[in-house]
Amino acid sequence: MATVAASPSYARPAASEKEGFMAWLTTTDHKKIGTLYLHTSLFFFIFGGLEAVLMRWQLMKPNQTIVTADQFNQLFTMHGTTMVFLAIMPLSAAFFNYLIPLQLGARDVAFPRLNAFSYWVYLLGGIFITLPILFWVAPDGGWFAYAPLSGRTYSPAINMDFWVLGIQILGISSLAAAFNFATTIINMRAPGMNLMRMPMFTWMSFVTQFLIILAFPVITIALVFLQFDRFFGTNFYQVSAGADPLLWQHLFWVFGHPEVYILILPAFGLVSEVLPTNSKKPLFGYGVMAYSGILIGFLGFGVWAHHMFSVGMGPVGDTVFSLTTMLIAIPTGVKIFNWIFTMWGGSIRFTAAMKFAIGLIALFTIGGISGITHSSPPSDLQQTDTYYIVAHFHYVLFGGAIMGIFSGIYHYFPKMYGRYMDERLGTWHFWLNFISMNLTFFPMHYSGLLGMPRRIYTYDTAQGWDTFNMLSTIGAFLLMPATLIFIWNFFKSKKGGEPAPANAWDAATLEWSIPSPPPEYNFAKIPVVHSRYPLWDLTHPERTKDVPHTDEGMRHTGEHDVVDMHIETERRTAKELGIPMPSSTIKPFWTALGIVVMFTGLLIMPHNKMAGLVGIFTGAAMLVGFLYAWLTTPLEEHH
Amino acid sequence: MTRKSPPRQLARIAWPAMLLLASAACGGNYPNSTFLPNTEFNRDVTSLWNTMLLWGTVVFVIVEVILIAAIVRYRRRPNSPEPEQVHGNTAMEITWTVLPLFILAIIAVPTVRNIWKYQGEAPADALQVQVIGHQWWWEFRYPQYKITTANELYIQANRAVRFELQTVDVIHSFWIPALGGKRDLVNNRTNILWFTPDSTGEQGFIGSCNEYCGSSHANMRFRAYTVNAANFESWAKHQAANAVYPPPAPVVPAAAAVPTSNIGAATQDPATVTPPAPAAPSTGYEFPREQLGAHLVPGTPLPASLKFNEALLANASAERGLQTYSRSACIGCHKIRGNPSSMGILGPDLTHIASRHTIAAGLFPNDAKHMAYWIKNAVTMKPGAKMQVFGIGEMDAVMKRPMTTQGGLTDEQIADVVAYLRTLK
Asked: Is some CB atom of chain B closer than 8 A to the CB atom of A196?
């Protein structure tokens, strides 16, 4: 067994495997799609970061004119929209794609072509919503798009049309992906892997899929209302016709708060893989970790109105939402302590991934504590819509989600590319990122409590905010070299990193039992799982002797050869092994393009009715036609 | 993995830097701090904050100490033994589930008490102020005193003030951080906010809009002055009165000479002169200019592209200004009580415009120079401003062509209008 970890190299992919542009365009392989997600979302992460840097430059000193008011308003709208919908969510999706089937011992996701479709909708939707900022006609109503400002009366130009339609496009992608992954997790676990034996990343992803499935329909309804108001003159949010604009706020935040957990839970899952592996210990309190994730997801739907304490809901509403919000701190706190005690007593190896995971614990704690301070409505009335809130949620999303995702990238890079990332550069990246992140966001606690509102493109002299803004801007500037180091490391290591064995970190879960990078079929033989730590059963049986090993949950999958846990070293093609794989197809791409053409038609309809209608019908025809062709083609080639 | 990591040097300076930052916030001049003990609300919230900060710090220290202890103590070394495999500990897990509940209870009790305390009824004798949000300025009405004014709020020290918050366009949020929490202005409903500035004395404060409301959200500021009862009555009485043109001679001691000027000529023109207002005091109380703190003096620079012949301001005629004002588009949006042609309601009430310290919702000082630039081309000075561009040759953003003599004003005419507006004390 010990020989396995030492086996140094694997055959490169067989020559018959298709590469090149068309291979990517037509792929249905979850790993390739995951790679596409990773690169695209990293691009958007950098794009959104540059938007933030421009904003910080403008706010470096009072009364500056680096950008105009309207440009600034577009920047903060697009920074939020980009980071939420185009960077963090799809970064998580990259891991869902790449890891969930590998962690489950499956050969692909449940619906491989739907998976490709999700990616193409995301990419095209991302372009749809991002292009306008290059011409300064981007959405400018905030990523929250409060009515009535987002309506045609107060935002008559095309700017908000991009947002209303773009977010709907992206919602299609998220929903399709969520159903896909939920189905995959429910149906495609390896024999013996019952729910309580799933790796924690898959567990947190499982919860996330249900959050997406339940939250995205709400924003979709809100967006359809807004779209009808803007394009067809309905009165859902038309205040002059008596509408209550709080309808939008309630719908938006019923989506918007679970969205926070959609962003953070996958990162929690990633560090729950990194911490035990690098501590040579199992996750402390596995059951409680899973349940607390479920509880966070559940409570996440009952706290939305804490975003609205200043709208005047009355004391009953304020009290209820205050108390539910405080409660959500408990499962979150449990996670923090369980992570720390996973490390306690362990043998900690400080890989770059581990540093980022520890960074998440340290920084997310700050975000959690500041969150408590505005769960209290009287206190929140002095904090909401100030820079204090900006500080808080950047500790949650940058200190939490992004640190977790970086941790995941360093950790899973060897699996994806068969090479390690450079640890020395990773360490530089971590410390520079950690320090400049704190330098950017910590002073914002002060500027907020000292009365500085959010979303202002400028501020006056002598308000007591100058020092803090200067510090924040310096921090934001320093985040650029930090990210550059990472990008350089990423691309350099892909080509010339130190070769990594299959089990690069001596981990416990199935994805490490197959070659790196994995062959297209993942598992030549589907493994049978007897405990929570199937690979340690094999490599470190002494570590898992206290864990229950039963055949409970064993079931027949109908898959081809099922074998006991083993490590695969051979790399052959699926054809040679007689494994049916989903065939490549371009139909999901054209279907996705049809949807985007359709929305583009609607977008230009107010400006040119004829062209708009042509666009809508062309797009609809593409959608229906290619969907029909897709659904009538069998998934697998005959073999 | 055993390499010494050079960036750890960076980390060593990071923590002291943060401590330094924390201590920096204790000194310094922070006029908009939410912790200024000017109202009972702010004092209660400060005490709530202190409770949360205390327990938050306790939790933070516990977490970070255990975390750091773990990573220092259990760092992998060449001869590290195989760790003991611990899968959990029910007692410990119950502890860190239940202990936070107690901390949350400590925070929840004053929270709920304060929620109900500050959403109760205001005292019956409270000063009533109607706050009406506009893109991007504030209208203040005092129904008890029949006053309508804009962007400068006078309230009485030691008397409760009850705001009725409404908006005419999009959602705004009314906030004076040094005096209390914010409350949104939501369409089709009236929100209430009240507090008592009981320890401010005579002071000025900055207020702002806190809900993003479009282009000039950042420029939707206002001033709030807490003044004593006598000064408030003086201010209110004067503000309630109509504007009088020509302005009455200031009341001066009998010994002093009353300056005679050519303003008497204007009274002979019945077409433009307003009927005498009911017993207007010559001037009312104004918050003294010299008591304005640095934070109350706007520092917004004038746009470099905008030019105005400032020399004209010295020789302008208020008389001609009145004529020009009353025949131009100004009257469509602005009201000057006492000028029967100026009946607009879309823009700020200008009846006592000269008694204010700022124009354009706190963006510029209210002096002849800034007023002239503002009339010439408001939208270059405040993005999205709805006020029409008047300067001939200036680009009219709505019509998308330069202003002509049709409706436009020359620099001379603008100077005259400014001179007129300057008389509206």
From this structure: no
Indicate if A595 and A500 belong to the same structural domain. no
Cα(A584)–Cα(A28) distance, rounded to whole angstroms?
A: 6
Domain that holds residue A626: 585-639
Rounded CA separation B255/B152 (Å): 35
| pLDDT tens profile A125-168 | 999 999 999 999 999 999 999 999 999 999 999 999 999 999 99
In angstroms, the CA B9 to CA B16 distance is 12
Q: What is the dihedral of CA B365, B366, B372, B376, to 10 degrees?
A: 70
Residues for chain A: how many in total?
Answer: 639
- Which domain CATH number covers A475? 1.20.210.10
Same domain, A453 and A598: no
Note the ipTM here.
Answer: 0.91
Alpha carbon of B417: minimum distance to chain A alpha carbons (Å):
28
What pLDDT score does A8 carry?
37
Strand pairing report for B183-185 and B172-175: antiparallel
Q: What's the mean per-residue pLDDT of chain A?
A: 92
**More confident call, A191 vs B258:** A191
Residues 267-286 of B with CB under 8 A from A: none
- Average pLDDT on A322-332 reads 94
DSSP code, position A422: P
> Which is nearest to A209 in space by CA: A172, A181, A176?
A181
| Domain spans of chain B, in order of start | 127-240, 275-422
State which residue of chain B sits closest to A541, comparing Cα positions. B85
Q: What percent helix, strand, coil does chain A show, rounded to 5?
A: 65, 0, 30
Between chains, do A311 and B82 touch, taking CB under 8 Å as contact?
no
Q: How far apart are CA A315 and CA A507, in angstroms?
A: 51
Answer yes or no: do A47 and A76 share one domain.
yes
pLDDT greater than 50 at residue B326: yes
Contacts of B12 (CB under 8 A, 6+ apart): none
Query: pLDDT band at residue B200, thresholds of 50, 70 and 90?
Result: confident
* Domain spanning B275-422: CATH 1.10.3720.10: no
* pLDDT over threshold 70, residue B252: no
For residue B364, what are its two tokens?
Answer: 């510029």
What mean pLDDT do residues A22-32 have? 93
Asked if residues A500 and A411 have their Cβ atoms less than 8 Å apart, the reply is: no
Task: Answer yes or no: do A189 and A88 share one domain.
Answer: yes
Would you tell me which residues 466-485 of chain A have a C-beta closer than 8 angstroms to some C-beta of chain B?
467, 471
Q: What local confidence, expressed as pLDDT, does residue A90 receive?
A: 97
Q: A515 and A596: one domain? A: no
Look at the domain B127-240 and name its fold: Immunoglobulin-like (2.60.40)
Give the per-residue pLDDT at B205.
96
Tell whether A536 is covered by a domain: yes
pLDDT band at B267 (very low <50, low <70, confident <90, very high): very low
Q: Do domains B127-240 and B275-422 have the same CATH topology?
A: no
Q: At what angle do helices A69-81 and A30-58 cross, to 10 degrees?
A: 150
Pairing mode, if any, of strands B221-227 and B152-156? Answer: parallel
Contact in structure between A510 and A99 (CB atoms under 8 Å): no
Flag whether A3 is in a domain. no
Active site residues of A: 79, 108, 143, 173-174, 257, 259, 261, 272, 306-307, 332, 335, 454
Reference B407, options B385, B388, B383; nearest CA is: B388
Say if A558 falls within a structural domain: yes
Q: Is the pLDDT at A639 greater than 80, yes or no?
A: no
Torsion of CA A303, A304, A310, A315, to 10 degrees: -40
Q: Specify if A2 maps to a domain.
A: no
Q: Are residues A394 and A429 in the same domain?
A: yes
With cut-offs at 50, 70 and 90, classify the pLDDT of residue A550: confident
Domain match, A518 and A637 both: no
**pLDDT exceeds 50 at position A369:** yes
Q: Count up the domains in chain A and report the number.
A: 2
DSSP-derived letter for residue A151 is S
